[in-house]
């Protein structure tokens, strides 16, 4: 079967505008996908060069297809399960920053270059004081970027119109701010001239971004069947969900240079991404954390089963719409629309998201994702939020066990063991306390300042309500208790 190539896709040559550190599934199904649509609609007219930023691994499979590949988005669209296929032609080249250093470095001299995209994992944006300018390339991603910018600055004699816009998508808060801090620290470490530092500060833009799309990657078990359907071989095939969101925070307006919203793409330019991050963390992640443990103890194993369980689905909806959304600051319709999109994503029949996978580190997740809504609801309504309160009791029921084996606390669901994964200190606490009487157990958990950063047992009525919920779960089981409480 013939593989994709530029001749087969009838690739159009466009100016290189984007240098992308990272050739993995997420960027190819998110950024490169969006730019492909913008190119098709005549809004961007620019191509991308992929850079392999690490020493190990190979990009031969990308070169074999001349950077042409397919994205298949699978999920609920207009109420029906659908598969949306797009052949991506926005990538013009791929280069190994180690094996092809000179060719990689030449891109710093490219007049048409405007943007640097990166996804080098959360650990990628770190300052390494052992990195050196003379390395080809420097070891760290900030080191590579600093040297690349310096070579561009030198080649164009500090021209202010040759600065670049950085678009990091690494999943850390204020990713652009941290990346710029690393660049400036390395510039100081390497004793680069003041003119370069001024050029970085004035000619370059470091945005902070928030990204959201589940990318499931290469469908190994289905690939050959999909090739038959396509009529061509594609070893770069990447699958993901239809939903996407890219929030770009920048002090300078870059919307004209990157007019993705004009192509109907879900990109938001803002000077403050925090409300959007809060919306995602509280609604999407908070909903996950609030229902998965109860749902698991009700007998479900994946998110989709939970959505098909009327009891759990009602619990999820009531938690989001009655207790989380009222605590958020964005316009209510924006929040409702986002929440409905989240529910649609949870119903995706192509994503088998295991509840036990989501349960990892649930104590810290509850603190980050659920506790802010919980506390703000109490402050606003002068009452305990029933569903979020119950989610804490469900956490305590889930984290019940006395044996730690292979770094996991062993729980029990209907006679079958399950593994509870969290920090060692957390597991040791629950191994020691989860067998206590309900009131004593509730007191121990709620007053654990190491968990919550404060003593939750001081909240009026909370300790008693949690103890009551835990007692009912122990005697009647999770499903019967939820039916009594939320019917």
Overall body shape: globular
Q: What share of the residues lie within helices?
A: 40-55%
**Strand segment count:** 16
**pLDDT below 50 for ≥5 consecutive residues: which ranges?**
none
Output the number of helix runs: 21
**SS strand fraction:** 15-25%
Mean pLDDT: 97
Helix/strand-derived class? alpha/beta
Structural Rg: 25 Å
Across the major sheet, the strand order is: 5-2-1-6-7-8
Query: What separation lies between the terminal Cα atoms?
Result: 56 Å
Most strands sheet: 6 strands, parallel
Your description of this structure?
- The chain starts with 5 loop residues before the first helix and ends with a helix.
- It has 487 residues and is an alpha/beta fold.
- Helix 6 links the parallel strand 6 and strand 7.
- A 6-stranded parallel sheet has the order 5-2-1-6-7-8. Strands 4-3-11-10 form a 4-stranded mixed sheet.
- The chain contains 21 helices and 16 strands.
- It is globular and about 70 Å long.
- Helices cover 45% and strands 16% of the residues.
- Helix 10 packs across helix 13, helix 10 packs across helix 15 and helix 10 packs across helix 16.
Note the topology.
Blueprint: H1 6-9, E1 16-21, H2 25-29, H3 31-40, E2 47-52, H4 60-64, E3 69-77, E4 80-88, E5 91-96, H5 101-106, E6 115-118, H6 141-155, E7 165-168, H7 175-189, H8 194-203, E8 205-206, E9 208-212, E10 215-217, H9 223-230, E11 238-240, E12 245-249, E13 267-270, H10 274-297, H11 303-307, H12 310-324, H13 332-346, H14 355-358, H15 362-381, H16 386-398, E14 404-405, E15 408-413, E16 416-420, H17 424-433, H18 438-446, H19 449-452, H20 462-476, H21 478-486
Parallel strand pairs: 1-2, 1-6, 2-5, 3-11, 6-7, 7-8, 12-13
Antiparallel strand pairs: 3-4, 9-12, 10-11, 14-15, 15-16
């Amino acid at each position: 079967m013939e593989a994709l190539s530029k001749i087969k896709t009838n690739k159009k040559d466009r100016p290189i505008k984007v240098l992308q550190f990272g050739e993995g599934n997420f960027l190819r199904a998110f950024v490169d996908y969006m730019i492909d649509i913008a190119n098709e609609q005549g809004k961007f007219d620019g191509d991308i060069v992929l850079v392999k930023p690490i020493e190990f691994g190979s990009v031969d499979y990308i070169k074999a297809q001349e950077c042409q590949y397919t994205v298949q988005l699978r999920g609920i669209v207009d109420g029906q399960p659908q598969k949306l296929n797009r052949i991506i032609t926005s990538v013009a080249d791929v280069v190994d920053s180690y094996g092809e250093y000179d060719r990689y470095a030449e891109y710093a001299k490219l007049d048409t270059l405007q943007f640097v995209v990166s996804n080098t994992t959360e650990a990628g944006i770190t300052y390494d004081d052992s990195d050196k300018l003379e390395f080809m390339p420097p070891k760290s991603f900030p080191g590579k970027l600093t040297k690349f910018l310096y070579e561009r600055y030198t080649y164009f004699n500090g021209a202010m119109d040759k600065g670049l816009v950085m678009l990091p998508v690494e999943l850390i808060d204020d990713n652009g701010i941290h990346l710029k801090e690393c660049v400036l620290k390395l510039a100081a470490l390497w004793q680069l001239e003041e003119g370069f530092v001024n050029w970085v500060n004035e000619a370059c833009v470091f945005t902070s971004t928030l990204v959201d799309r589940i990318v499931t990657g290469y469908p190994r078990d289905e690939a050959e069947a999909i090739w038959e359907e396509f009529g061509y071989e594609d070893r770069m095939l990447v699958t993901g969900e239809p939903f996407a969101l890219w929030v770009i925070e920048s002090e300078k307006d870059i919307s004209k240079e990157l007019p993705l919203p004009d192509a109907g793409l879900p990109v938001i330019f803002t000077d403050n991404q925090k409300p959007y991050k809060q919306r995602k963390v509280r609604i999407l992640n908070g909903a996950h954390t609030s229902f998965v443990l109860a749902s698991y103890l009700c007998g479900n194993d994946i998110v989709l089963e939970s959505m098909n369980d009327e009891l759990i689905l009602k619990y999820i909806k009531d938690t989001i719409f009655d207790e989380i959304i009222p605590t958020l600051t964005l316009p209510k319709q924006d929040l409702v629309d986002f929440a409905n999109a989240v529910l649609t994503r949870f119903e995706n029949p192509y994503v088998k998201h295991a509840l036990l996978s989501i349960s990892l580190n649930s104590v810290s997740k509850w603190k980050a994702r659920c506790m802010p809504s919980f506390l703000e609801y109490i402050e606003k309504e002068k009452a305990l939020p029933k569903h979020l309160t119950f989610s804490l009791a469900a956490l305590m029921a889930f984290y019940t066990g006395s044996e730690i084996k292979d770094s996991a606390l062993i729980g029990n669901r209907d006679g079958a063991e399950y593994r509870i994964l969290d920090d060692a200190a957390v597991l040791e606490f629950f191994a020691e306390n989860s067998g206590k009487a309900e009131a004593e157990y509730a007191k121990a958990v709620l007053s654990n300042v190491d968990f919550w950063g404060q003593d939750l047992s001081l909240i009026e009525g909370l300790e008693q309500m949690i103890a009551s919920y835990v007692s009912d779960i122990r005697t009647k089981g999770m499903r019967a208790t939820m039916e009594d409480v939320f019917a």
